[in-house]
Amino acid sequence: MVTRQPSLAAVDVMRDAPVIPVIVVDDAAQAVPLARALVAGGIRMLEVTLRTPVALAAIEAIARDVPEAVAGAGTIRSVADARAAVAAGARFGVSPGYTSAIGRACRDAGLPLLPGVATGSEILLAAEDGYTELKFFPAVQAGGVAMLKAWHGPFHDVRFCPTGGVSAANAREFLALPNVVCVGGSWLTPADAVKAGDWDRITRLAREAVALRGG
Questions:
Q1: Which of 47, 70, 105, 162 ranks highest by number of CB atoms within 10 Å?
Q2: Measured CA distances, 203 to 31, 68, 70, 175, 210 (Å)
Q3: Which residues belong to the active site?
Q4: Omega cis (within 30) before 190
Q5: What is the pLDDT of residue 2?
Q6: In this structure, how many other beta carbons lie within 10 angstroms of the beta carbon of residue 28?
Q7: How far apart, in whole angstroms, are the C-alpha atoms of residue 12 and residue 5?
Q8: Contact 2, 31 (CB under 8 A)
Q9: Which reaction does it catalyse (predicted)?
């Protein structure tokens, strides 16, 4: 268990930097140097996906040893996932979809959540439960920039973090949209760089990501 820090609002998580890195950790020992490399490049909001057996240990290590970082948990698929993430020290959560049970669990735990949506009906469901900062996932596969432009009219009060198929090559196109606050992507933490411990490369990629938000 780690000491809980004051919580954030979901929009604060989204506004901190243009990109939230989507991180897959296979070796818990890599979590701290990886987090430090991202922070050195100006990226503090770190989404560690709950896709590997060591993900919770990685979140706990970052929360404990890298106070400049804000550890978050991605791939929250259940109430149990949300509770485990909070216990590990996560300060925000990201889900690939949305259910009211997950929304309530995160709210009860004081965990800001970016729920995943891919359709108008899912946006309505999340908004009905008070969630208007959302993850658009899988962004490119579900309609990309064109879909977000279409949503801007009926959902003018909803803000998005497109994730899924977003890369350094197309991130600016998403970030230029009025209803996009940030994007999510895995290109900041390439598997080969993490495996090799090439932290300088990850810091460089983080700096380049920060520069995506011109001005």
A1: 162
A2: 14, 15, 16, 21, 11
A3: 47, 135
A4: no
A5: 47
A6: 17
A7: 15
A8: no
A9: 2-dehydro-3-deoxy-6-phospho-D-gluconate = D-glyceraldehyde 3-phosphate + pyruvate
Q: How many residues does the chain have?
A: 215
Indicate the residue type of 187: W
The predicted-structure confidence for 69-111, as pLDDT tens digits, reads as follows 999 999 999 999 999 999 999 999 999 999 999 999 999 999 9
For 125-146, what is each residue's pLDDT tens digit? 999 999 999 999 999 999 999 9
Q: Summarize the confidence of residues 42-63 as an average pLDDT.
A: 98
Could you tell me the CA-to-CA distances from 106 to 27, 38, 146, 158 in Å, in that order? 27, 26, 31, 19
Residue 215 pLDDT > 50, yes or no?
no
Q: Which of 99, 63, 64 is nearest to 82 (CA)?
A: 99
Residue type, 68: E
CATH of 10-210, one of 3.40.50.700, 3.20.20.70, 3.40.190.10, 3.40.50.880: 3.20.20.70
Written as six digits, the tokens of 36 are: 């430090």
> Measured between alpha carbons, how far is 22 from 95 in angstroms, rounded to an integer?
12
Residue 72's DSSP bridge partners are: 47, 92
In the numeric block, the tokens 């979140």 are attached to 59
3-state secondary structure of 113: strand
In a 10 Å sphere around its CB, with 0-12 CB exposed, 13-18 middle and 19+ buried, how is residue 1 labelled?
exposed
pTM, rounded to two decimals = 0.95
